[in-house]
Amino acid sequence: MRHRPIGRLAVALAITGVFLLQFVSPASASTVGVINGTVTDATSHKPLADVKVTAASPSGSYHATTDSHGFYTMTGVYADTYNLSFQLTGYQPISATGVTVFADQSITVNETMEKSLKVIAQAYARSSGSAFQPTQTVDTVSIGPQQIQEFQGSSFNFSESNIITSLPGAEYDSSGYPVIHGAREYENGFEFEGIPYTDAYSNQFTNSLAVTTQGIGSVQLTPGGGDITQTSGGFGALNVVAKRGSYPAYAQLGLSVGGPAYDHRATFDYSWATPDGRFSNYASFAGDNRTFAYGQNNYPYAQIGRFFSRRMDADREFQDNFVFRFGANNHESLQFFTDVAMHDFYEGAGGLQGLCYASCDYAYVHTWNGLLNILPQITPSQIAAISALYPGQSSTYQYLSCPAPSGPPPPGLPNNVTYTCDQSNRAPFTYWQPNQAFKLEYTNNLNPSTFLSVLAYRVNSVTTFDGPSAEGGINDVYLPSQGGMTNGLTVSLQKQLSDKNLFQAGADVSHLHPIDSYLSDSFAFYGALLGLVNGFPEQYLLPSQFVNPTDPSCQNPFNSGSGFNGTASGCGWAYQGPYANATQLKFPQFDQVSTVDRQDYSAYLSDKWTPNERLNVQVGMRLDAATYRMPTPTIDPYYCTTTYLPITWTPPTTFNAANGWKCNAQATFSFDDSSVKPKIFEPQFGINYRLGENSSVRLTYRKAVQFVPIADVDFGQVDAPAYLQFYGMIPTYEPFGPGTSSCGIPGTAQQAGPGQSAPPPLAVPCRNFGEQLYWINQNFDGIAYQAAKPTTSDNWEFTFPTNSRKVCSAALR
């Protein structure tokens, strides 16, 4: 039985080795730390062996025994505040209270024991979460529940931004979002309960920074390059640790009502654990509704600079943290963590009377009437008639709320149509951000000096903007969705090799599936207009082609000529073929989708050497890698060509368009591996020397990397079926003769590289009107894929921290 822990350690090291070899998104910060120290005789100052050390808190307990050098260690200690007790036969037991452990940090508690009748109990407040961390080699600011409560003022505070910006090194950017060291929003690491809490598309935080105060156990801010276990992008990382269930149980209920603006909030949490600590659970719910304006809902706030009437924010968040501990001394555990939230923002909540959908909005149709005043003259009524219907909109001339306003419509809009109202009383603009995060973690304290963790997680966050009213703008976007899903697996190991060496290793693999999709009729109009050459449309593709050919504007003298139906402008072209009897067609919406996924890998090794009580040295190496999974370039089988760059082209061997031979050409993207498959090694070195109880000198170097967000690589691809489904049967509009229309990327054939055959010209004649519309929008949207190399930084930091909460520092990035 004495060999059993060694066998388990061998298995643990083998498992970790496999993961380090196979998985090389960034390894996550953890939720645990280390307590260690040395126990000596108070009189002889010799080390004491076999001292039983226990760390206990409401969330759990940990045990260790000193070795022949008097050294003890407890790895895998959950971030909390503990009472330490020391017991040895023949010596009086002592205790140290208020020992606060923070994630990814080690805390040293040295004690002396004496043979006396006096029970010693000392307060160990030095670790309570100030800027002064005397034994760390990396600058880190960590705060616990007490400091969080002080910063937030009450448990009703939903502003996580307030916590972040209250810590040294963080501030608000120009957009009002918290950042570390002046970085951009996507350049900071952000984690909750050890889970990367950033969306897959833009790498920005996923929870609207609205986690409630009551559910947070601790917050750790690491500016600059940070520890080798963290992903910081070179600017900083933030790690939030959730509360755990505790014994004895407690429950809290809070209700608040604010005014004169509407502000109602409710919070509830319940924490419990069994006396033996095997089962524990912490659950909380928080909700609030608040507005930011006074007066009646339907007051026209645009007159005083507040658009869309009253705004209401609604937040709902449920959090549950269940832990089952088992095995001897509860040394193994299973944790299931859930965070489900919904953050909604409503503009014009309560219903602002008189607002139309974009198709009957006076400012919208008159704006486009002016911009489209080119061959032929298009009236506001025509713009309204050909604007695509918004999802959920049942008719062209429809108001957002009921009842529809009485009286004549605005000038320029038709009087002989039926104006309806949306029975749902739709808000002019709504923003929905649901967030779901799930974590399943297995941990094993193989022995007091060895801790193994295997963590699987899933984060889902897709923000949707619902803006049915243009309100006079020309860039309104229908139902854009942005965010994505991240699934990952993390393995980490802590091993106290000796009283002087703490070894850490970890690896992570994650899959990022982004979502970036939106519809817009404005962008469709805009794309057609951008085809102008010397003030005239390059391909004569204008919304006028969707105007009924019997409309008088198609027959006026200015438009007479040899075009379809006797016009030169192509007015009414979309009414050909199967749509000849149609009463009204809509100009197709711009429709964009994201098509690039990303696979992230990371691994790290770190060793912290503490030769004496004054000196701490840490060295480490990290590998971060990513693979952008680019789609295969599309090949048009009709023309046997491809329309994306850059590509490596394999020409066809059996293609003949006239005889219908098969096109077996192949194309692959030829992006450089340093852009689409980057691998970055990141060394770290840190040294900390304690000058005294209240001060130390610290020098740290860390190379860090920030991978390019998918949002900057994948600009979205226009959805071709949306155009081909309706307009694939209509001939291409070619005012200058057959073959004069152009589909594909404008330009000539790609130049062949050494030993390569050049592909056919990228721009080829369009086969139908649907292709023509598709490529006008695709070229308006720009290059679909644009890979870029990651950003790396060399971070040098020299600091002189003290426990007076003043830190003198100099950093070079």
Helix/strand layout:
Layout: H1 4-22, E1 32-41, E2 52-57, E3 60-65, E4 71-78, E5 81-87, E6 94-100, E7 106-108, E8 111-113, E9 120-123, E10 141-143, H2 145-152, H3 160-165, E11 170-172, E12 178-180, E13 189-192, E14 195-196, E15 216-223, E16 236-242, E17 250-258, E18 263-273, E19 279-291, E20 311-326, E21 332-347, H4 362-371, H5 380-386, E22 398-399, E23 420-421, E24 429-447, E25 450-466, E26 478-496, E27 501-520, H6 521-529, E28 532-533, E29 536-537, E30 590-593, E31 597-609, E32 615-629, E33 635-636, E34 641-642, E35 647-650, E36 666-669, H7 673-676, E37 679-692, E38 695-706, H8 710-713, E39 717-718, H9 721-727, H10 769-781, E40 791-801, E41 807-812
Parallel strand pairs: 1-7, 1-8, 6-9, 13-16, 22-23
Antiparallel strand pairs: 1-4, 2-3, 2-5, 5-6, 10-15, 11-12, 13-14, 15-16, 17-18, 18-19, 19-20, 20-21, 21-24, 24-25, 25-26, 26-27, 27-30, 27-31, 28-29, 30-39, 31-32, 32-37, 33-34, 35-36, 37-38, 38-40, 40-41
Helix pairs in contact: 4-5, 6-10, 9-10
